[in-house]
## 1
Amino acid sequence: MRNYIIKRLFLSVLILFFVAFIIYAIMRSIPTSYVEAIARERANLPGSKSYTEWIQQLNQIYGLDSGIIKGFFGWIGTVVQGDFGDSWVYNVPVVEKFRETIWYSFALGSISFIIQVSIAVPLGILAARKQYSKTDYAVTVVALVGISLPIFFFATILKLVFSINLGWFELYGTVGRFYEQLDGWGKFLDLAKHYVMPIATIVIVGIGGLMRYTRTNMLEVLNSDYIRTARAKGLTERRVINYHGFRNTLIPIVTIIGGSIPGLFAGALITETLFGITGIGKTAYDAMVGGDIPFSMFYLLFLAALTLLGTLIADILYAVVDPRVRVN
């Protein structure tokens, strides 16, 4: 297992290197020059340098005055040292802005993920156990509704009902206007109150796919020969389902869960933007719209690293869930 992990980590670093080159090459090939826009804006400030001087200085700072290969190795050299440059939109170091916003997204993603798994997996198993019953049809309808609902539409409905009509929650933001005047428990409740609708949006919209996937795999497992053998031996239905069936159902579900791990840190871009949560998703969206190349490159590279990490964790979990799988 140790040799396998070391080998995969080395391969992941190699893949990440080529992904970083592709990201850099795409950013360098963008027809619109944001450097020129920044130079033009700064040249118009009172007492500022000329437009030509700003162009030369900015191109030198960001390595745009050399070829793509030379510029990439110059950029990757600073990246290895943990320096991704300064954000053009937020006027702070990229890493500093990342640390400021990542925990909002992590809280939103992790809570939503735990609730999704806690609801979708048991309901999927229940629907498989009671195939073609009213319970199965009800779970199927809920799953299809969740799959079919667009995020922006469902979020708008929630805000209309619970914010505008009932006035239970705020429309936007992470904390209320009187947040700083509250005590510790009051701050926690205020923060939790602002997260209710974003979490509900992610859970309802994302729960359907996992629920249907669990049901399909559980049906396949329940129709297997070893399940019929276990029942023929006189084992209780609960033991057949929970011990023999559920464990084998987890094997393909691990793939879904492992692929979902990057989402805990990547941020829910649409949800965060709709509800005004200053997480990494909304921050990256604003940076991309504003032409913030340093932050955009960092975010894309961050997503690539998370994807590789999620794939590695899924492979390791395979061996944990199924003893028949031996990683070597």
## 2
Amino acid sequence: MAKEDQPAERVVAHNRRARHDYAILETVEAGLVLTGTEVKSLRAGKASLAEAYATVEGKEAVVRQLHIPPYEQGNRWNPDPVRARKLLLHRAEIEKLAAAVARKGHTIVPLKLYFSKGYAKLLLGVARGKQTHDKRHAIAERDARREVERARRGGERGE
């Protein structure tokens, strides 16, 4: 397969709960500092963003609880699956994230882990937690869209 035929972005993991539990205010793409066996494990499609979160510590951004299981053909020096991993961002982006987190109720949530042009990337979202009534409203909207789509498809078939 030629380089031009490959997709520009290959998704490894999604954090589906993030968009349900949080209102995403803005997104930032960050690189990850990984070891060789972690990259191989990601290329095999193994990772979990379920409990992951990002923080700004001093002048560095770090993602925690990102689970990348050990590479099966790796050796005994495989790194810890949930170790803290440094994020590669410009200084201005880190300062912007730090300012966003300083506001009450805001946090940094990993949304998607993917490969872009051969590099592992993490899509981060500056998010504010949703209240229960906001979640109910979103579920009601989704159900209404589903009903409209179902009715539209039924009309196309001649039912």
## 3
Amino acid sequence: MANVLAFAEHKDGHVGAAGREAIATAARLAAELGGVAHALVIGAPGTSERVGTLGASGAHSVTVAEHASLAEYHPDAYSIVIAEHVRGGSYAAVILPATTLGKDLAPRVAARLDVPLASDATAIETHDGVFSVIRPVYSGKAFARVTLDASPALITIRPNVFSAEAPAGAGTVEAITPTVDIQSAGLRVVQRLGADGSATDVAEASVVVSGGRGLKEPEHWQLLEGLRDALGEGVALGASRAVVDAGWRPHGEQVGQTGKTVAPKLYFAIGISGAIQHLAGMRTSQTIVAINKDPDAPIFGVADYGVVGDLFEIVPRLTQEIAALKAAD
């Protein structure tokens, strides 16, 4: 029982960074235990034709549970499929990404398997086959070490913290047709509202430009859009809860304890005071740049670079300088 299973979240057959990080993490853990990593993908018929590259992320084998009823995420159906697959595979651990979907799905899988869940892991260790997880607590003000003595060890990993690189696996793909009865489920999905498909997901971006109430009104968001465009492709816009609650920005951009957890290479906090709920969602970013007129703003306590001043003067100048550097290259 040395193999490790990763749930590979995808969108229309494309497995993003979070899903590949889960597979690579499973591959590294399985290697320590003397086993291999297996990946599980759930989706509509035909999904198996689009996931053949997961071997490059470390998957020895990829099982694709295909069913017309699984085309859209359904928490009851997905948790049943995962739990049944785990029972039939005898895995040492199951890894899921701590995305919005993963946070909703993992506790349901844990309940069906009757095992504890270690969520939002930032580090995972194995000692004599026992898994030990480091995870943030108290809104990220401290970190706890959790030892999982149940089997399998069920863990969700914080996006952008674990590397998506691992030795390539065989990547063999097998499609199965699970038994799905959504009609008898206690939950029914009636509508799904998604963000603009052309925008980079804030949870997967390597650079995030976030704004808060310091921007004063939604019309001033064009300043952040200009900075995002100057920085180049793969940059996402983020927002504090205050501006999302005010209706300035969509919930999909919210960073924080009740929004999305991000850990990009570079995080701009512009006009954000730094409430503990916001810090909980971004303090593991590799480099944090804060711009705020209040020198005592809590955000400066976690920032690597802090600029005290008027964002309406600083951001346009910063955008101009970055654009000039890009043009020179």
